[in-house]
Amino acid sequence: MQLNWKLALALLAVLCLQLVQGSKPNWDAASGPEMGLQMAAHLAPSTPKDVQKTAAMAVISRVIGERSSQLFNVQVNKNMDLRSFQISMLDDGRILLMGWDGVSVCKALHHYLKYVLGKDVDWFKMRIELPTNLQLPNVTIESKSASPIIYHQNVCTWSYSFAWWGIEQWRRHLDWMALMGISLTIAPVQEAIWVEVYTDMGLRMEEIDEHLAGPAFQAWQRMGNIRGWAGPLTPGWRRYQLLLQQEIITAQHNLGMSVALPAFAGHVPRALKRLHPESTFMEVQRWNQFPDRYCCGLFVEPTDNLFKEIASRFLQNIITKYGSNHIFFCDPFNELEPPVAKPEYMRSTAAAIYESMRGIDPQAIWLLQGWMFVKNPFWTTDMAEAFLTAAPRGRILVLDLQSEQFPQYELTRSYFGQPFIWCMLHNFGGTLGMFGSAKLINSGIDEARRLPNSSLVGTGITPEGIGQNYVMYSFTLERGWSNTSLDLDSWFTNFSHTRYGVKDERLEQAWLLLKNSVYSFRGLQKMRGQYVVTRRPSFNQEPFTWYNASAVLDAWHLLLTSRAIIPLEDDRYEIYEHDLVDITRQFLQISADQLYVNLRSAYRKRQVARFEFLSVKLLKLFDDMELILASSRNFLLGNWLQQAKQAAPNTGEQRNFEFNARNQITAWGPDGQILDYACKQWSGLVSDYYRPRWRLFLEDVTVALHAGRPYNGTAFKLKVSQEIELPFSNKADVYPVTPVGNTWLISQDIFETWKSYSRDTLFLHNNRLLVPRKSGPK
């Protein structure tokens, strides 16, 4: 087969890469910590020190403003320990931030801001205002990360949170990543490259369009779960995404971050079989009941010559477009059962995938999500060992994706020697709801480090969606940097100081109450953020709460009474309002669970008057939730929809982009295949989606009670699907993108309305009813 000019250029780029690679590292005898240091150095980009210094200074300027150069000086020093920083004062009164790389310098800035100046950042607030007359305290601090690699992102985050982001939002997030000390991430955008590859191989554009999913569902098309749903992807969008990804990678490399690039996992368009009838294709297991039209592509047998050809074409193109840090990611069996249940097949499959990377880059490392091993009976010890040991030790780097709840490194004996990263997954679908396992995370990282023959090389965060429970991500990243457990009470207390810029006993106590309640989860229940308010109504729900709701009520009251100590003009007041909305929403969410239990009881006992009374209360709760959510820009459906439409390359594509945005957070599929998986407690969704569903349900049950007949749940499912759930994706209502109302006044009014009801109602705790305390909030 003759090489075309594109492939020739790609081969030239690969040859140049191989010339500068030097000798291949050997990790066979290295311990976990040694392997981690060697791997981190191996993966670090070869960005010049002056470029990293400039990039770090630019981050500082964006965070604290134009006075940054008057207050701080930075230095990148490769003679320091890897992933370390030093803070000291220069003779001219400026603070010197010195680090091993640009990321370490930014981590030093964050440490100084938070632990010396008492100021912190947040996903929703990346600018810190410093007083004009500020005298910088003179300190000398040295710190080294106990985790050679600190990782962030999940392949799903790019769809659930990043789908519509432009470079401005990405710039803020990259700044945040640098401040947190994150050194490894992924760059999954690949659709434009696949179009080039498939076109060169002879596929028609309409055949490619049938394969590529819409802009809100690309993560699952990339992993072979779906095909074509909510597409097509137009050339303008593909081109824009490629250019955006290149800009993101450049910014990350400039700071010294390592970036894993996509490799070929084996999933291809069905039409490819037309061109290669002699090759071995496997049918992919149906995923979440998606119909044939959207599920699924074909899986090319990795030992087939066609696999090697496609992998080579794709990876050469990827490296040409993005450069390389010698690390590539792909997941051949993400929530998909392998076609052959034999260890020798698993070994040959993994070996072929790894060899496809090594053939292009002899120093390649395969970054693999360990999610496929979680609670999957297919993966016996023999199967997992055959798969993981098919590549030399140190050539597969595993993300132990949900270490805080379902760690797999114990079951796999530290992944049979392959290095792994301890990760907190925490969130599914970008759902809302206060939740976390602070104690388990604090102890779990230590346990992984102390494991005999541990191959742990790093820590990280792998949420499917961000924009919620910031405290848990801040804590986990700091815990990963630290070589010892953190004092939880001290850490949460200080979090309240730096979050609001004041030291106040009420705010301290509020966060300690939350630490000991919503952030104290430990158990095996799958916490997916689907609560009564956001689930399709039925009498089959079992609300679960692992804490006493009175702790949330008390914390809410403490936040309300703290308003006066945070001036309205203070830059921290917006964060205070965000937290007030979130805790109000949380208490209403809990109250809905309580109301539901009583509604179900009233129905089963045929108590018509009680059922009607509770129905009115529940609908009032939805109205109050809509009010409080509408008062904060971070809880508006309008922003999500507007960003989707603005991301569309032209006005003609806006309708499909809005469909993608609406469908993902509601039906998630053509017929509600993953209904409400990515639910959001947002203003607009509450009023026009969740409340109407419950109103329809309550009306149907009330009619059934009055008629003396059983409620027909099957008929309701069909009715609510056709009248509310599926039509929502095709609507075009415009929602506010700016807040409405005074957050504190709305929250205070809701507090006065619901505190008495809650105190008089039984609390749910560990799936049983508790008698509430009689005392009021302190």
UniProtKB/TrEMBL annotation:
Residues that span the membrane, as ranges: none
Domain spans labelled Alpha-N-acetylglucosaminidase C-terminal: 491-752
Group of enzyme by EC: hydrolase
Catalytic activity: Hydrolysis of terminal non-reducing N-acetyl-D-glucosamine residues in N-acetyl-alpha-D-glucosaminides
SUPFAM superfamilies: (Trans)glycosidases (SSF51445)
Limits of the Alpha-N-acetylglucosaminidase tim-barrel domain: 151-482
Keyword set, alphabetical order: Glycoprotein, Glycosidase, Hydrolase, Signal
Signal peptide: 1-22
UniProt-listed PANTHER family: ALPHA-N-ACETYLGLUCOSAMINIDASE
Protein name per the record: Alpha-N-acetylglucosaminidase
